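Everyone, describe these structure tokens:
***
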Amino acid sequence: MANNNPIKKKSALGRGLGALLEDSPKKVRTTEALTPPPSASINEILLEDIQVNPFQPRIHFDKEALEELSESIKVQGIIQPITVRRLGDSEYQLISGERRFQASKMAGFTKIPAYIRTANDQQMLEMALIENIQRENLNALEIAQSYQRLLTECDLKQEQLGDRVGKNRTTVNNYLRLLKLPPDIQAGIRDQKISMGHARALINVEDVDKQLAIFKKTVEEELSVRKVEALVKELNNEPEEKPQASQSSLDPLKKYEIGKLQQKLASHFGSKVMLKADHKDKGEIKIPFRSADDLNRILEILEII
């Protein structure tokens, strides 16, 4: 993927999808050397000569929506050309427009209008992700996952990401925080059982079991965002559990030592750690995790996996 083919020149990155499609790096790979300079001309290309985009972030395409688009193309034709890069003689690869590409096949077309652009693998990935994000029918989780891929696979900072997608850093961060939710809640966002507003309220609940309980109640009772926010606020305002007698009976020095150790453990694991001990030096350590990925991260620190 893109991580195995880092680009040496990044001047073409950083100015959004339009600029990426217009720019052409001075040095390209052998397979890109045949690509003509970008132009505004539209080329008619055989559908059979076009490969799908291996960096396409969207895996599922709604069959009914594709059929509707196909019927529209039969009547209206392709209004917006697709964008491709040339791999070789009569060999192309999609950069953007896979729905139009697939719908044209369904409509029985043999050719499709296309712009030919120069792009290396990392630019391909970035353009595909940004084009995907700009679609109106993405759910919040799909947007969050695309943001995360831009950060990790395209080596972007949050400020750069905000510039790419035209969002401020706060908005970008709000989407990224969704990925810290448990898998069940993420699936609920993906399947449109809850909205972005519901999810943002649930993020403020630290206890995973309580998060899931509120999520289940939200889905079953079809609670509004305001109602969920009220439930979370009420939950967070509950008084903390009183310390056990064995913990409170510790001398001040031992309490201080346990507190410092707890802070060190929290810093080491990058997560809230609960450490309890009694006067006989018996106790427990709890390390909560928010998702399967977070659990794997903790297990890797412990060198268990």
Summary: Confidence is low (pLDDT under 50) at residues 1-40, 240-247. DSSP finds 14 helices and seven strands in the chain. The longest helix spans residues 252-269.
